[in-house]
Amino acid sequence: PSVRPRRCRAWLEGGGEREKGTNMAGDVSQLPPQIASLCQILQSCLSPQQEVIKAAEQQLKLLEKTQGQAPNLLQIAVVEGMDMSIRQVAAISFKNLVSRGWGKEGEDNGFIPANDKDIVKQNVLLALVHSPSLVRVQIAECIKSIIYCDYPDKWPTLLEAVFNSIASQDPPKIYAGLYALRMLTRKYEYKSEEDREPLYHVVNHVFPVLIQIFQQLLATENKTLEIVEMLKLCCKIYWSTVYLSVPKLLMQEDHFHAWMNALKVLLEAQVPSDVAPACKEQWWKVKKWVLHILNKLFNKYDMKVKPDEPMYPFAVLFDTHCSCQFLQSIMTMLAGLQQGQYISQRCTNLALQYLTHAMPKKKTYAMMRPHLQQLMFNILFPLACFSDEDA
Hints:
The protein has 391 residues and is mainly α. It is built from 19 helices and no strands. It has helices at 5-13, 33-44, 50-63, 69-78, 84-101, 114-129, 133-150, 158-166, 171-187, 197-219, 225-242, 248-251, 253-268, 277-300, 312-321, 323-335, 345-358, 362-368, 372-384. α1 packs parallel to α4, α6 (114-129) crosses α9 (171-187) and α8 packs parallel to α10 (197-219). The radius of gyration is 25 Å and the shape is globular.
């Protein structure tokens, strides 16, 4: 028999701690028999001998439809003290099992037993909280697959779990909640209006707290890599939410100004010079998503929107309070190029796209006109010239 559901739940809710007397890093014989046997198979997947690897993979294939296999793989992937290489193999095997056996949106339910699915859904967010980065990426992919297949009808408790995680003030839980929220909004990014009602429910329930978290992250003095990654998730959540249309909540002036001010702060923020390269890279990815959002809003919701269209109030707000203000920020950023400052190529491209959208519009063109000569000869011409990078 598989490990009992309550054992798996208790282990995850305890933060991945080992039960007393269980030596996860030592003798696997002290583990429950099915877990110990599964660990040995996973260990064989790391063998330098191809025939041993093939045999282990075949055993995993045979176990796919076994009751408890999905929760057991998840448990091994997340439990502290287990050898990291085994945890990685368990996480990859779990991801592959979910991909093949969970089912697809609007199709059959897959071959993973319903009880196992319930256990996984009860614990997968906590698993993301307690996972190291090498394991987290695999579990995150599973959350995406499960959300796309099961939300909202087969996973009605997810939204409340996401809300509680984001509101927890615990950074690992906030990250897990933001990631799940990103997948929720991404699911509806390209959905037609009649299929977006679940998204609007998510926005109304979670976004009042989300903007507070966004502002708190912005106000943090020492922005670590983890905080910058969470800022990027906030931007991607907003992008997916407004891609096709803006929900009514985000058209309210208080929410509108809160989000636009936060995006402006991010756009104008200086990328720290004394941080690791990985953190710098994430900073430029954050700015890239801010510029994506601004281009989308500026190009789609300009004053060509007619007064009788639903998006007209948002278009008025953006034209009145943002189009010129963001243009000034972008021109200031591009001016740094002539001073030798680094701007990522993607951000440079997106900044120039914003200028392209601004040229035909009377108000923004009037703002650009005094600077056109400087823009042309000091910024655009050097970018167009053949350089060492082009060689």
